[in-house]
Design brief:
The chain is mostly helical. It is 69% helix and 4% strand. The protein has a two-stranded antiparallel sheet with strand order 1-2. Helix 1 runs parallel beside helix 8, helix 2 runs antiparallel to helix 4 and helix 4 runs parallel beside helix 6.
């Protein structure tokens, strides 16, 4: 699959590959649709997961690469949950759609602890198995945080956007640290969408939608 390494253009001396652009477009489309409360974000998400697998393979980010099947499973779960709400979970405007809800503080503390523990263990494992990864612990932390954000999004928790904002900030740091130029710009767009979506989902939560 040599096309993934094809250089489309250069940005400040850094090449932008076909897989970089493809994954960026799919990712931005996916989160934009999710932020607008559209169930169609999951269909784009399936393609995005496949593109990320190729991207991480190309960049030697093995923690992110190996967890893509988990990401796919979460996407499937979210697709089902958003379209098959249980009793008392229905949106006030659409009985076939899951409404936005929030974690309580004990659940938030558990989520934070889970991310830190799993990321630490995964980073240590990655460091032993794949020494070529330049930043195993940061790579692992970003990956596990992404999975947590995806899980919260799959359950339609408002808190997912807080997690996504942390992901976007960490990804900007990660990409800059390995010399990427194009991806930090993309992550900044994710950050802007996350802020907008944070406010949008709060309105949905207050309206019981």
């Amino acid at each position: 699959m040599t096309w993934i390494n094809e250089t489309l253009f250069s940005l400040w001396g850094q090449p932008v590959l076909a897989i970089d652009l493809l994954s960026s477009v799919l990712g931005l489309t996916c989160v934009f649709l999710a932020g607008r409360n559209s169930k169609y974000n999951f269909w784009v998400g399936y393609l995005y997961t496949a593109a990320l697998f190729l991207l991480f393979w190309n960049k030697n980010l093995y923690a992110s690469l190996l967890l893509q099947p988990v990401s796919l499973a979460i996407n499937i779960l979210g697709h089902w949950r958003w379209t098959h709400p249980r009793e008392n979970e229905e949106s006030a405007s659409d009985a076939t759609a899951l409404k936005v809800s929030m974690l309580n503080w004990p659940e938030r503390l558990l989520a934070i602890a889970s991310v830190l523990v799993i990321a630490g263990l995964w980073g240590w494992t990655l460091d032993k198995l794949f020494p070529a990864d330049p930043h195993p612990y940061l790579d692992s932390c970003v990956t596990v945080l992404i999975l947590m954000a995806q899980l919260l999004s799959a359950l339609k928790k408002w808190d997912c956007w807080v997690a996504w904002l942390l992901v976007n900030i960490a990804q900007i740091i990660l990409h800059i640290s390995v010399g990427h130029v194009f991806m930090p710009i993309v992550c900044a767009l994710y950050l802007a969408n996350g802020l907008w979506s944070l406010a949008t989902w709060m309105k949905l939560y207050k309206k019981n939608e």
